[in-house]
Amino acid sequence: MSVQKTDNGRYRARPKVGRTVITSKTFDRKKDADDWHAQQLRSFHLGAFVHPSAGKEKFGAVLDRWRAQREGTIGAKTFKNEGYALKHVEPLRNRPIASLDKGEWEALYTRLLRTLSRGTVLRTRDSLSALYEWAVEENIVPKNVIRASRVPKGTAERPTREIYPYNLAELRAVHEAMSERTNQTNADIVLVLGLTGLRWGELAALRVRDVQELPYPAVRPTRSKSDGAPLRNVTKGGQPRTVPMADDVATIVFALIDGRGPNELVFPNTVGTFRQEANWKRDAHWDDVKRGRRVHDLRHTFATLSLGNGVDIKTVQNWLGHSTAKLTLDTYGHYMKSDADTAGIARLNGALAGDAGGTAARKLRRATSGE
Predict the structure, then answer these.
(1) N or C terminus of the chain with fewer C-beta within 10 Å?
(2) Which among 269, 290, 301 is positioned nearest to 178, based on CA atoms?
(3) Residue intervals in the chain for CATH 1.10.443.10
């Protein structure tokens, strides 16, 4: 029999496949032993059986093995950011992975929210979910407990960094200031980034074949080359996308690729290989002209200029290569052009026009109350 009563009155379940006992466990009640026995056999025949000893492995050891095989299969920057996200789970490294259930992880999220933004905690959860998916495939755990876990609503005590885009006049001023300090190609890169939303790695890897003239001028980034990382034949978003070129950008790009072969780079360095962001920032005197921005704020500039001029959110999502329109909306929604806002500001300005001796306040009250 596969469930037997022991000398001390308990019940030992020993599920077998053929003559091989695949695991065993002792229970106080026979019903519990029978149920567990049936569950183990069912899992075995469905290919989902995990030996209980596998779950005894320390969480930290599983994490380290997963990270080791993951390095080189994802982008260097993504791997680095993932490492930052997973630093927050260090206190649980010495726990057996099988002992960490949904409630344990949700308690960790709550603790992290005391000092971290919800976005950071969500990124930690996403990385953990990827780890658990791998652990399921490796028969270390029977299921991904992170899937069912939820990050509660919350805000960190420290503020998160806001995006800081240029307006169009500022972007042109930076371009002009850079043109006075460096060669024209270096200066033009700031305009191309600010008017296409390309990531630096996408611009560095852009080839002549990735530029189209018809049916409209556009670039189609398909690869990425970040500083110190190998060339990736995929962008961060995972899919090629088509980004239209405004006239200013098209003039720059078509002049650069004139006479070049299809596999040549659009923005090579002085020896014809991939241009590095750090070298460009130095040669273009970025720190002297940037007005407190990061290079990545040029991508935000393109997004906010597009939305502020009435381009719909779905189109901007596609241009940026975001996975969902919600991501685009959450990041840039407050920059979208709003007829209600425009009308409200017009009424405010009308009420304030000709203000003298506090009459504007009375006009504003009448305007907003419909008197």
Answers:
(1) N
(2) 290
(3) 168-335
Q: Are 283 and 186 in contact (CB under 8 A)?
A: yes
Rounded distance, CA 186 to CA 177, Å? Answer: 12
Cα distances (angstroms) measured from residue 113 to each of 102, 146, 297: 17, 17, 26
Indicate whether this model's pTM tops 0.70.
no
Q: How many CB atoms lie within 10 A of CB 122?
A: 14
- Residues contacting 342, CB < 8 A, separation 6+: none
Average pLDDT over residues 109-127: 90
Architecture of domain 56-137: Orthogonal Bundle (1.10)
C-alpha distances in angstroms, 299 versus 16, 124, 241, 277?
A: 60, 24, 15, 14
Residue ranges, comma separated, of all CATH 1.10.150.130 domains in the chain are 56-137
Could you name the CATH architecture of 168-335? Orthogonal Bundle (1.10)
Which tens digits make up the pLDDT trace of 48-61? 445 555 557 889 99
In eight-state DSSP terms, residue 361 is H
- Cβ atoms of 66 and 138 closer than 8 Å: no
Average pLDDT score, the chain: 85
**31/183 Cα distance (integer angstroms):** 81
Angle at which helix 339-352 crosses helix 359-369, to 10 degrees, equals: 140
